[in-house]
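New to this. Comment on this protein:
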Amino acid sequence: MMRPRLLPRVLRVFTVLVRYRLDELVDESHVMRPLQWARMVLPRPGREIAAMPRGARLRLALTQLGPIYVKAGQVMSTRRDLLPPDIADELSLLQDQVPTFPGGEARAIVEEALGAPVTTLYARFDETPLASASIAQVHAAALPDGREVVVKVVRPGIRAQIARDLDLLHALADLVARWHPQADKIRPQEIVGEIEKTLYHELDLQREAGNASLLRRNFTDSPDLYVPEVHWSHTNERVLTMERVHGIPADDVAALDKAGIDRKRLAEKGVRLFYTQVFRDNFFHADAHPGNIWVDTARVDEPRFIALDFGIMGTLPESDRYWLAENFMALFERDYRRIAELHVAAGWIPANARVDELESAVRTVCEPYFTRPLSEISLAEVIAKMFNTARQFELTLQPQLILMQKTLLNIEGLGRQLDPQIDIWAVAHPELKRILARRYSPLHALREIRRRLPQWLHELPRMPDLLHDSLKQWSEGRAQMEIRSQELERLRLAQHDTQRRTLAAALGGALLVAASVLFAGASPHGRWLSAIAAIAGVLVFAFAWPRRER
């Protein structure tokens, strides 16, 4: 049951919806229906608000509700393929029309955070903000040496406000967990937990500075993306000072055309950047709405993006990244059997699921899309429908994938704004194939072995004892099972086969370690021996690997 102290906050949300004539949304929510009686006592909207377009009313309501709702509106604004144009246009204003706080307060926060007067820290500090967002606002300034910078300052009191909103979201998640029939698959508390973690990460500007620094290093001298330099001497948890850059917002099509930018080429670069960040670097900009992505006007012939606002960055566990890449490749190649097998192998669907039935369901959803020209197919839409279909097979939602999914939606929406005829599939497929070919190449495997070699050598003296203990336990288990039924006899034989494969794998591992040691040497002779040992190790692994039964 909802805690009494939260009821006023729920009523506040409902009051704002009624004020802006958005209360019809409540009718569609089972959780909120008990509050419908409140319409009788709440005042109806005034004539001025009633005359506003629905998009403007929604934007104003989200702004009044606070940062979490503003963030939701920012994400929604990029999906022009899903939203009516009037609503998308209004929600896009959330990116730069959040109310400001006084410049004098910003100056005081900077001085308190950095421990020195603003006149000492900067040659110039403009109290009129350049932009204002839901977490912080940005002021133009100049360093004592004359370099132009921007100073990002966290809003006063925002941490307490976010804590109150998150408290309410957790309470609503409890209601969903209690009453929704698919709550175990939706996992509402884990989703709210991801939102909470993301917002608190955004509050730490030193963390954002670290994100910017890493992304800048990943794209040093890149013709596709530029990341401004962080000035660490003027940065901490509440203040971030970065190089000032100039460009055109990526969704300002008229300005891009006027500047002579090749939008088609730019759109293709945006798609490639998504796959590079996710699958090459495992570090991607996860708040890529047009307000945070500009275009460098100084590079007309070779257009590139400029990234801003690094508060929300995404990473994925190595296993999830692998399964995602394989799912993308299978979808590009229309291998529905492979998609079904990958969902089970990744643990997203229970192991007892009927793979053939899942394959048929995925084919039923995806195949109609391929009757259209590829330039008209929304990859994000196909993936969303595919996951919705998989929920019938007890798909477990992966909270760590939320940012990646949101980023894919943003990038595709932006790409279609820049070039409505872009063939997402034709751009994405070869790019992902190229990245995976490099990532899982034999040379990359040898480099990984070389990187991990010191740790393996540290653990190596303990391996004989561990192997002996394991074999002893298996042997004792086999001796006990020999008196069992015929079914247990099959288990014994399976364990015997496991022992054989384990010993072979140990030999293969030893050969690979030896290959790494030889590879680390400088002589060409040692390199040849390294290659031979590596090939032998791979062959031993191949013979030891269990054969797939048909």
The chain has four domains: 4-95, 158-199, 259-440, 442-544. The chain has a mean pLDDT of 78. Residues 486-520 form the longest helix (35 residues).
